[in-house]
Write a structure and sequence with these properties.
two-stranded antiparallel sheet, 312 residues, globular, mainly alpha, Ammonium transporter fold
C-alpha cells in the first residue's frame, strides 16, 4: 500500500499571491504625487497647502466615520483615503473656500467609495465624483483661477481658447513647468510625468491606458487642426491619464480593454474641450468610461481554450 503523503491540495482561488499590499501601492502613489504637491505649494503658496491638508484630513475622518455608521470594518490603514484626498485637492483651485473643499472630500469618500461597499467595490473614481459634485454645486468657486506666484485672477489656458479671450496664451515651456493658472495638480506637466513614470517603473499602472489616452488626444487634436502639444500639456490631462484613468478598481482588467478605455477617454476629452460648453473634459470623460468598464471587460475577455465564441 502506498503510504506516500498526498501533496495535492485543493482550495478556492486565488492561487497566485503577491507580496504587494494595498498600503504599499498607495504609499507609492503618494510618493508619485509628491513632485506635483511640491509644485502646487511652490506656485500657489500656503493656500495650496491648506487646501491639500483640508482634503486629506476630511478624507481620513470620512474613512473612519462612514464605515462605523454602516457597521463595516474600518480600513483607514490601507492609505487609499489619503490618495483620494490628494487627488481631489489636485482637482481644485487654490482659491476654493476650505469648507467647500471639505464637503467635496467627504462626498468623494462617502458617496464615491463607501456607498458602493468600500475599496474595491466602487464603480467610479471617488476623487472625480467629489470634483463633479463640487462643479455642479459651486461652479463659480470651482472656476475662479489665479496666476501662480502673484495671485492675479485670470483664466486657464483652455479657458482662454474656449472663451476667445484676448489674453495671451502661455508658452509650451510655461505649461510644461507649471507656471500657469489652473487647479493645484493640473499645472506642472513635468511633475506629473515624473510621478507617472515612477508608477510605471514600480509596476502599479499599465502603460496602455495613459499612452492610448495621451496618444488619442494628440492624434485627434492634430487632425482637427488644434495644437496637439498645447492640449497634452494643458488642464488636467496628465493628472487624469497617469493617476485617475489608471485606477485599478474602475478600469478594465484586460489588455485590449485598457487600450479601448484610454482611446475612449481621449476621444471624449477632445470632444468636450472642442465642442462642449466646458473648457475641460478630463473629469467627465473618465467618469463616463468608468461606467463603460464592465461592458468593455465583457467583450474583451479572453475566450476559454477550446470554447466556442458566443454571439449576442
Amino acid at each position: 500500500m502506498n503510504t506516500q503523503e498526498n501533496l495535492l491540495i485543493v482550495s478556492s482561488s486565488p492561487h497566485l499571491h503577491s507580496a504587494n499590499k494595498v498600503s504599499t501601492a498607495m504609499r507609492d502613489v503618494c510618493i508619485a504625487l509628491l513632485p506635483a504637491l511640491v509644485g502646487a505649494v511652490y506656485f500657489f503658496g500656503m493656500a495650496a497647502a491648506t487646501v491639500i491638508l483640508t482634503c486629506v484630513i476630511t478624507a481620513l475622518l470620512s474613512e473612519v466615520i462612514a464605515p462605523k455608521i454602516m457597521h463595516r470594518e474600518v480600513t483607514i490603514s490601507d492609505g487609499s483615503a489619503v490618495v483620494t484626498g490628494l487627488l481631489l485637492a489636485f482637482c481644485l483651485p487654490s482659491t476654493i473656500p476650505l469648507w467647500i473643499a471639505a464637503i467635496g472630500s467627504a462626498v468623494a469618500i462617502i458617496i464615491g467609495k463607501q456607498f458602493f461597499g468600500g475599496l474595491g467595490c466602487n464603480i467610479f473614481n471617488p476623487a472625480l465624483i467629489g470634483r463633479a459634485f463640487l462643479v455642479a454645486s459651486w461652479p463659480v468657486a470651482m472656476t475662479t483661477w489665479v496666476t501662480p506666484l502673484d495671485g492675479v485672477t485670470t483664466a486657464t489656458p483652455l479657458g482662454i481658447i474656449k472663451e476667445g479671450l484676448s489674453e495671451q496664451l502661455p508658452s509650451l515651456g510655461q505649461l510644461f513647468m507649471g507656471n500657469v493658472a489652473g487647479c493645484l495638480g493640473e499645472t506642472s506637466a513635468l511633475a506629473l510625468i515624473v510621478g507617472g513614470l515612477y508608477l510605471l517603473y514600480k509596476g502599479h499602472i499599465d502603460w496602455r491606458i495613459p499612452f492610448s489616452y495621451l496618444g488619442t488626444v494628440f492624434v485627434v487634436t492634430a487632425v482637427v487642426g488644434a495644437d496637439p502639444l498645447f492640449h497634452l500639456l494643458s488642464g488636467g490631462l496628465m493628472l487624469g491619464a497617469f493617476f485617475m484613468a489608471t485606477d485599478w478598481v474602475t478600469t478594465p482588467i484586460t489588455k485590449k480593454g485598457r487600450l479601448l478605455f484610454g482611446v475612449g477617454c481621449g476621444l471624449l476629452t477632445v470632444l468636450i474641450r472642442l465642442m462642449g460648453g466646458y473648457p475641460e473634459g478630463v473629469c467627465y470623460s473618465i467618469l463616463l468610461m468608468n461606467l463603460a468598464t464592465p461592458l468593455i471587460d465583457r467583450y474583451t475577455k479572453a475566450r476559454v481554450f477550446g470554447g466556442v465564441k458566443k454571439h449576442a
